[in-house]
């Protein structure tokens, strides 16, 4: 896996730029990752990102939008406002988690 | 007398009781399996019903004929599991105690979960093919469909047999072409995922399958409701996808009794250890097959490989030994491509589907990630194997754990961007 430097920090990423070592993530890095995709993180963004981190730590999987909505309490419509067009992928990217994938 | 109770006599539940009845002494162990009816459907056959390849008779059997002697088969609706008391209550008032419980109640399409789906257009211009009735109704609708917009849609992941919507799309495209109306039909594939193919090797080697067939793609699409007047899907970010014929995969959820019993996640799937399928909350409860929350495909092949691990582990567990088997998420699926060809994929929790041959290097006879006639014939032959080898719990000549033998691993991946 490639190694890249962001925000003065060496990180392991996959070919799409997603962190492959969730432990390399911290909140300063999230701010830099957000900036990479044109998102300035507000409190509402942080609510979603912190839920993703907590849920991933407990369940071992990146939660779906439906799970962020029903368990994390942030409506899906709002997730599309916070992370336009591709909320599932963008939230995972900023939270340093694997993107949602299908089987093929 | 010890009691093993299995909820669900589908693919997983039937394999489990067939295998364990042979291994457990009848003088020591009662085995009971509960299901709501006596009809076992060969669910992979639903894919072919809309195109008239299979008749309804070929894909159903009485559950009694698939279950062994020495197993009590109870027909009834489960009301709830009382995990503290180790009992299961049925809606008709009967109660069963257990020492060990296996939840194998699968996943069910839930059109009621999307506003507008069950409205006036349901089974008029909106169809599903994950139910026997839906697939039969779609067959009638397809016969009359000769122009317009065909939209194939997935509501949300996870779904049962995640490649089936793609297979349906390919089969429909070929079928419309063979009927000479393909140029009068627009086909759109709508998915909540970032692409039709999301794994690096698959997107690289199979991306052509959509472009070559002129199938339009709408990605990252989360449907909020269906506008019945306009005949359009409406997403949370207000993108409208109009249709003349909608073939949708409704939200998939585990059984309602799982939720009533407090044993499920937000979609009623049972949280389990992904290596042993043991409930995270109750060590004498297991969830096998589609009913669990493991991050593997909800598919018969996954159920089959998981059952082999579970049954061996179960014998260790009741002998007071640690469970040594670890399920790796192995899945093995044929993908119909239309025109009498098919693909085969073989993968697990950690390894994406790769190219190569299966099960043997070079000679195959199946090819991985490649459209071949042999793969299509393999899929058709599988119906016989399902009834005669798989359900009775006999051994298949393929490894339980995914094997790298025959696979090619040097395929480079294509970089893409998040934006």
Would you mind describing this structure in some detail?
The complex is a heterodimer of chains A (104) and B (419). Chain A is mainly alpha-helical and 104 residues long. Chain A has one domain (3-95). Helix content of chain A is 47%, strand content 8%. Chain A has a two-stranded antiparallel sheet with strand order 1-2. In chain A, helix 1 packs across helix 5 (87-95) and helix 2 (43-59) crosses helix 5. Chain A starts with a strand and ends in a 9-residue tail after the last helix. The relative contact order of chain A is 0.17. Chain B is α/β, with parallel strands linked by helices and 419 residues long. Chain B has two domains: 2-109 and 253-318, FAD/NAD(P)-binding domain; 118-252, FAD/NAD(P)-binding domain. Chain B has a five-stranded parallel beta sheet, covered by helices on one side. A five-stranded parallel beta sheet of chain B has the order 11-18-12-13-14. In chain B, a hairpin with a 4-residue loop joins strand 15 (223-227) and strand 16. In chain B, helix 1 packs parallel to helix 8. The chains are: A mainly alpha (104), B alpha/beta (419). The A-B interface holds A 15-18, 36-38, 59-61, 64-67, 70-71, 76-77, 79-80, 84-90, 93, 99-104 and B 156-157, 162-163, 166, 191-194, 197-200, 202, 206, 220, 222, 224, 236-237, 265-267, 271, 274, 295, 297, 331, 333, 335, 345, 347, 353, 413-419.
